Structure formats: C-alpha cells, structure tokens
Amino acid sequence: MNRFVKILPAAALCLCAAMTAACSGREPDAVIAVDASKVEADITPWLYGACIEDVNHEIYGGLYDQRIFGESFEEPVPNPLFDDCTAYEGSWRAEGGEVIAAAHAGAKLVYEPLELASGRAEAELKFVRGNGGDNAGLLVGVSEAGNGADNFNGYEISLAADGRKVVLGKHRKNFTPVAEAAVSCDPAQWNRLGVQTGGGKIRVLLNGACVLEAADDDPVPAKGKVALRTWNSEVRFRNVKIADGSRERTLAFRTTPAVQISRQWDAFSTGDAVAAYRHTAGDAFNGAHAQAVEFVSGTGTVGIANAGLNRWGIAVRKGQRFEGRLYLKGTGDVVVALQSADGTASYAAQRITGLGDAWRKFPFELTAAAADSNARFAVYLDGPGRVQVDQATLMSTGSDRFRGLPLRADIGQAMVDQGLTFLRYGGTMVNVPGYRFKKMIGDRDRRPPYCGHWYRWSTNGFGIEDFVQFCEKAGFTAAFAVNIEESPEDMADMIEYLNGPVTSEWGRKRAENGHPEPYGVKYIGIGNEEVLFHGDSADEYDHYVERFGLLHDAIKGKDPSVKLIATAWWRPDSPSMERTFRALDGKADYWDYHPWADQLASGREVEAELRRMRELFLAWNPDTAIKCAIFEENGNRHDMQRVLGHAAVQNAVRRMGDFVLTSCAANALQPYKQNDNGWDQGQVFFTPSQVWGMPPYYAQQMASAHHEPLLVANAMEGAGEELDVTATRSPEGSRVVLHIVNTGAEPLRAALRVAGMERVSAARMVSLSGDLTAANSPEQPERIIPVERQLPAKAAQTLELEPWSYTIVVLDK
Description:
Blueprint: E1 6-7, H1 10-22, E2 30-42, E3 48-52, H2 55-59, E4 81-82, E5 85-88, E6 92-95, E7 98-101, E8 105-116, E9 119-127, E10 135-143, E11 153-160, E12 165-172, E13 176-182, E14 191-198, E15 201-206, E16 209-215, E17 224-231, E18 235-244, E19 247-250, E20 255-256, E21 266-269, E22 274-281, E23 289-297, E24 302-306, E25 314-316, E26 321-331, E27 334-339, E28 346-352, E29 360-367, E30 372-381, E31 385-396, H3 409-417, E32 422-425, E33 450-451, E34 457-458, H4 464-474, E35 477-482, H5 488-499, H6 505-512, E36 523-530, H7 538-558, E37 563-568, H8 575-584, E38 590-592, H9 602-620, E39 627-633, H10 640-655, E40 660-666, E41 669-671, E42 684-686, E43 691-693, H11 695-705, E44 710-717, E45 723-729, E46 735-742, E47 748-755, E48 762-769, E49 787-791, E50 796-801, E51 805-812
C-alpha cells in the first residue's frame, strides 16, 4: 500500500455507502461505457516524467547536497547599502538623485520606514536603450518580502520595456495578473508611473492620465510597503514619491559602502578584533575570485559565514556528521565551524593549520553537538593572520545522502516515491554560452564557474554526468539537453564518455572519474526552446537545422542508438515549419513540444495541438518516424487546478498512443518561497530541513502507481467538457484502470459500464480533490493527498465524483 494514500476508515466507508444508497434514485449525470476487449493504442511507460531546468535553485540548495551557496566566491561585493531600503537581489545603486537597477529576473528595492494602507505612490522611470528586457515599475502593499522573484505579498504595477503596455498584478508568493492596458510612450524617456489605492479599487496612472482601474475581488492585505521593481530590464528611477493622506514625501536614497566580501557570505567579528576584507581577483584557486580575510589587531575572532541558499540557514541535527573541504593559503590558523545564526553558539569546530603561500585543499569533518534549523558555516581566524579562501564545500554523510551520491536523500527519495519513470534535465539554463559538457566532469573543485541564465554566478558542482548518475541510482530514464553551439568534436567525445567502452579514450576518462560501466544514455535534446526568444526567424530556424545536423552526425557516429530530440520552437502556422521538418526528418527522433498545462481546458487544447502536429508530420511525409516528446509541461501553479490540467494532459497523451514519448511536468523541484525563473509550479517543495509534495506530485504518483500499458475503448454520454476519461488495461486483461478528471465545480454521478470483464473480484477508487487553489505547506504537508475507498465488486456501478477531482478506478478480475 502506498504510504501517501489515505484509506477511509470503516465508519466512513459505511457513510459513503449510505450516501450512495440515498442518492440511488437520482439519474446519473453521465454514463461511462468501457469495452475492455477493444485495444486502441499502446501507452508509453515514460508518461510519468518531470523536468529539472534550474540548476540554481532546484539543484543547488536542493537536490545537490552542497549546503554552501556561493562556494566559489564569484558573486561580487554587494552594492552600497541603502540606508532606508532593503534590496532583495539584483544590483541597485544611487547616483545623482537616481536609482539605477541592472537587469534581473524580479529584483526589488523595498522602502522600509513607511507602510501605506491607502494612498499614492509614483516614480519616474526610463529604460536604458538597447537593453531590451521585459518591464519595470512599482510594488505596493508589500509584506513578507524576501529573495526570489515572487517572494512577497502585494501588488505589482509595471510598464513594459517597449512602452506599449501597463500591467497590474498581485503576488501571494506567486504572480496572478489582475488587469492590463495598452499605452504608448517612449520608454527611453522619463515616464511617470503611479498607483492610487483605496476604496476597494486600484488606479494606475501614466504621465498623469489614468490608464487602468480595477477592483480585486480577492485582495491581498492593503497595508504594506512600497518598492521599486525590475524584471529583466536595466532601468533608472527618480522622483519616487509616496503620499499617505495629505502628507507627501519624496524618497532620498542614501547609501553606505558595503563590506568587501562576496555577496553570498557575511562578515563577522567578536571581541575588539579588527578585521580587513578584500574580494580578490586574478589569484583564485578556481574561477576568477577568492575571499581574503585578515585579523589586523585586538582579541576575538574575525571571519566569514555562509547560511546557504537564500540565507535560510543550514539545518543540522544533534549528532549529524558533515564533511567538507576548502582551499586556503596565507598565514595563521583557520577554524571552520557550525554555529548558530548569530554566532553565539558553536555546534562543531575544527582547527586547520599548515597554511602556506600556495593554494592547498583542507578536508574537515564536523559533528553537530545540538540541533538547529538555522545554523551557519563559519570560517574564521582567532589570532593574527591573513588568509585567502576559495571553493568551500559542506555536505552531509551516511544515510543523509541519496544512495551514496552527494545528494539529499530526502529529496531524492521523494522523487522516487512520486513514481517518476522519466526525468529531463535542461531548459533555458543550457542556452548560455558557458554551458558546456566538458566543463562539468572530473574534480568538482576544478570545474569552472560560468555565467548562468537564471543565476549570473553559476557553478558546475552538479552537471550532466551527475544528473545521469542520479537517474541511474533512482531508476529513472534520463534525458538531457546540450547547448547547440557545442562543437561536434566535443559531442562525439561526450557520447564516448557516457556510452563508450572503457577501452576507448573517453570511456577510460569516465572510469578514472569513478564509473567504469557505460551509462547507456538514450535520449538527448539538441538545445532548448530554440528560435523562441526572437520571434519567428527563418534565419534562426536555418541556423538550428545546421547545428542539429553537425551534432547529429557527431553523436550518431559514436552511438547510433541514441535518440535525438529537436527543440526548434513548434509554430505550426510558421512558413519555416515545413522546411525545418523536412531538414530534420530522418535525423530527429522526436520533436519537443512545450504546452501550458495549468488551465482547466489544458487537456483539450494540448490534445488538439498534438493531433495537429501528427497530421502535419504525416502530411509532410507519410513515412516519417518523427514523433513528439513533451519535455516541459509548463504552468504557473502547484495547486489543485494544476492537478486537473496535468491529469487531463496525461489523458490526452494516453489517447495519442505511441506518438508521444513522455510528458515531463515542470518543475520537478522548488525551494519554498524561492523561484528565480518566475514560475511557481514545483511538484516537490523543500526547505533546508523539510520536503513535501504538492497536489500535482500526488496526481503523478497516483497515475504512475496505476499504470497499465494498453488504451481501451471508452465512450461517454451526458457529460459536458468538464469530464475527461481514459480507460486502460493490463496485457492479459485482468485489470482495468480508469483515469477520470472532473474539472467542474459540482459533484457528478457517473454510471460505469465495463464490457469485456467476465467478472470482477475487487474494485476500488483513489481520488484527489479540493478547492482549485488548495495546496500543501510546511505546516500542512499532507493537506491534499489521495483518498482510497473500496467499491462494489461489479463491472456496472455508479461512481460519485467529487468536484474538481482526479479519480482512478481499478477493477480486478
């Protein structure tokens, strides 16, 4: 029995039976007729997929058991600190009465001294020419702010970087659009953007004119702070004003220089010790930077501390053993320690001696003497000396690791328990120039940092080979994407490294790196969402075809069994599409399609597009072997509404038979209250000390646990579009499984009629239901979980389907 399925007690079963009996006189709302003897298609065993596409922070701070974030000290020194504002990510600076924000995916600068319940806020802003970007503007009603694009509550008022649109949205640790309006202004000139709140309405003004007015039926708390905001745009602000009643103030942005320390670390000192810090360049062990710490004078300690991803803290248990390493050079003794967040308590410490003029690796072990969910890792001197620090690692040991790998056991096991059969590693992170396979193998401490997409200062502690190792241990079929600008020579070496014999040059390197046996990689995506970001460009489609051909020849030349996935953006109405298909036909095995899957109509829309894709493929070449792979099933939700969209998409894929290889729901993982890529669609959520599944996690688990490989005929009468059903069966016909999605707001009675089963010996149903916005939380991690109950052992019976529900019915001979 699955440990996540709630079994109704006997009393509840009796109550359900009594309710069914009481309703037995009512006519059914729908009839579901199944013919188990009529097989219509084979169903892919890899239907139950997920996608990891953000190494920062699905991997770092998540699956990868590196407790230190910013281990290579590549992050620059923070900008000067604003006296009255808190910067949550990004690069902000004050200059000549202006505030200048560098492009960032969701950075915010929150003004702390004042909260508005109602009133007015405005700012003049202009976008830097040639920067492009998305939008920028104001936030009001801000509360519970933290690092992360959507990590706050409040309202967002943004002007598009092209000057054509104003958007009003709200945040509750996510983003929901409220209204938008078309405008026309020159974004390279100063434009005055304002917002007025009060009376249950929000008015948005641009250059003195009201361009948008909206009421919010489900408002966030009105009282909150005001902030500046950028979304992937370099923008300048000035004349920022806040009015509360009759009082108006113009904000003065004063700053204090920051301590010269890499921004993911914090400086500290005790006693009267005097410290000096310098973020050094050009003399690092790995990458471009290291951190220098000097004990100048006095008594006490001087050092640096790291509290992990988002400065959440490092969770430790009493008696938990950690191991780590760091690279040092200089003079004096160094102490590494696990401490409380404020440094007043020490849970473990180890002294390191023997430093010199050259970089040297120093391993250490720390065993926590007490539990603390918010500890920090500290490196300090307690006497005169000057050291440089680089490439620091802290990991758990023993059973806290997933099957011997340097991965968090709790997160890895949660993914296994989800029932995943397929895992994809890719997404936009692969599109940056620095994403290269050969930089991801060998000694982790020497893998070079690079400029990432979602996070500027990415490192390579976890890469493609580490992903493949995880899939191997977890039992998932692995697929990953490569940058299309990789050289054919490097891709040939990659395949030899991953799949070649130990007698080959690169197979021998794999063995030297600890894995003698070939990995047997089968699925590789050439790129990710290519030709998406600059519109329907024929030249870009042609460039993609050229690059695909070169990498195809290199990869297939080493291992013809590898299946290649084309990732040119699917635009069926584009004049480039048929030409691109014909150029890839015979080379690509699958075409990647990325649908949106968190709307109630997602299943119907995705099925229509899949059928259109198949029809076009066959029209262009009746003998084509190209099929579809859904490597990203995207959305912006992780609640019951996403369950319904996801389950309906899976039904659509079942009906497509073997045309679709997999459907990988994004994102596999999400740190709680952190989402750099602007989405809010994680299946497994985590903090430093806790892991739990969201409702879509359980929907995936239900579907995988009840997989049968054959689609059988079913028909419905009397049901509208709110009911979506597929029927499947085992190869020998001893089990029939129905997947039923009710996207309606009302309960439904469905008369089930199953032909082709002589008799039924047992029947049961497993259901997942709740309000559309229902989700799980750290406080209620199992608020929404599957509920199972027994049914009469009959092939003909009446099913009571909850509103907004995903239900699986199992009939056994």
